[in-house]
Amino acid sequence: MLEKLLKIKYVVLAGGLLTAGFAWAGMYGTRLLGDDLESVEKMDNNSYQHGSGRRSGHRTGFYHK
Amino acid sequence: MPFNESSAPTSFDCPVCNTPIPGYDLTESSYFGCAQCQTYFYYGDTGPIDRKTTFPTRLEPTPLAVGSEGYIDGKWVRVTGIIKKREEKYADPWLEYVLMTKESGYQVLSEFNGHWMVMRPAEGNYQEEKGKNVTDEDREYTLYNRYNCRVLNAVGEFYWDVLEDSKLNISEYIHPPYLLSREVGLQGTEWYKAVYKTPQEITTAFGLPSPLPKPLGIGAIQPSSAGQKRPTVTWLATRLALLVVVIQVLFYIIKPQKTLFDQSYSWNSDSTLPGSNQPIVTSSFAFAGPSAMAIKLKANVDNNWVEVPISLINETSGQSYEFTRTVEYYHGIDSGESWEEGAQKDEAILSHIPSGQYHLNLYPNSEGKNRFSVHVTVVQNPILYSNLFLMLILIAIYPIVLFIQQNVFEHKRWEESDFGP
């Protein structure tokens, strides 16, 4: 089998890298595809406790029968 | 025989045009074809010469000439004769090079459209099954072609009368890169086994100065590159898929899911009420990262929706992670059929969140004047199913591509056959 695997060594390498990437993502809780996070902001130290009026929220669309 | 020692290794003159005809195995050979005058004749140990035929067309220069030496599968061979044939039904010709060997008698090297194969007598008794299959100890061969051939030309020396080949009923069964050929004639049935050779292999075998032409189309027993790789790639892919699942299970054990926060809040969407625009600010919780964080929302929406922009705030660094979830649930009955759309819950998964003390700011909004109950749950180390499925899909892509390539290849191969599966 080793001889056969050597014939597809680049596929083996790609598979190994993919698996390593998967293990790394699992270790650090990283999603490989997509993220629900929209933005990361640095807040004023005094303002993060209360966000009143910071955002009103705006619904962009929804299904309605 | 009147040998002419001036032509190596031995030769005699053509009885018609006196051109020297080389002889490499005159103890076995009794039939000869003259390259100069196209005369084909019998010349046995005792005379006289029996002219069998004169081929109407001259044999064009061939990649291998009579007398060429080479090593096929590490064994010495010499071309002693060349036969040009075609099927009765089709005009496309092929060449058969008769190869003399030191150990195992004669072999035939066949070339059609740049596809080469070495054919050797097969030992054993074979039977056609189901009218199209033949099985030997190693594999099952499928009927690919049945034909009668016509001999167009023959040059060199032969140990049998090549003109008799046109009386044979030939059936070819394939299991690429192997072929089994059955030749039924008046003298009985003979079987031959062939194996595919690439032009590069033939170029190397005979030490040709320039490469042979690239093959045209798909050969009857040409191995598919995808088909050759597929078993190993599939083996590798299944092992990688298994490894990925094992890794996922390991993470589930060493980094278990942990609920950090679980709380319900009440909120009124009536914007005229005082404080309705105030965000819901949760109590803080400690998060051990870097890891993924799942924020799960449940809301008692009923034919309604609530949109919740959320800020996850790291109280130490002041970093704010912004995202929005919408919980919407609709149901009813249309034309006697009940229907529902959406759900009373939604979830966001945030990647690679560092360690720290966090809290959430929720800014719910909706239409109408309703009182909502919003339940918030924060989970550390949620299972990232999307990673698992993405990996399994990526691992499966190449085997699937090879499967498709192999099927396209086989489809093209069998297009040339009258006996497609």
Automatic annotation (TrEMBL), chain A:
<protein>
    <submittedName>
        <fullName>Uncharacterized protein</fullName>
    </submittedName>
</protein>
<feature type="region of interest" description="Disordered">
    <location>
        <begin position="44"/>
        <end position="65"/>
    </location>
</feature>
<feature type="compositionally biased region" description="Basic residues">
    <location>
        <begin position="52"/>
        <end position="65"/>
    </location>
</feature>
TrEMBL record, chain B:
<dbReference type="Pfam" id="PF13785">
    <property type="entry name" value="DUF4178"/>
</dbReference>
<keyword id="KW-0472">Membrane</keyword>
<dbReference type="InterPro" id="IPR025235">
    <property type="entry name" value="DUF4178"/>
</dbReference>
<feature type="transmembrane region" description="Helical">
    <location>
        <begin position="233"/>
        <end position="254"/>
    </location>
</feature>
<keyword id="KW-1133">Transmembrane helix</keyword>
<keyword id="KW-0812">Transmembrane</keyword>
<protein>
    <submittedName>
        <fullName>DUF4178 domain-containing protein</fullName>
    </submittedName>
</protein>
<feature type="transmembrane region" description="Helical">
    <location>
        <begin position="383"/>
        <end position="404"/>
    </location>
</feature>
<feature type="domain" description="DUF4178">
    <location>
        <begin position="66"/>
        <end position="194"/>
    </location>
</feature>
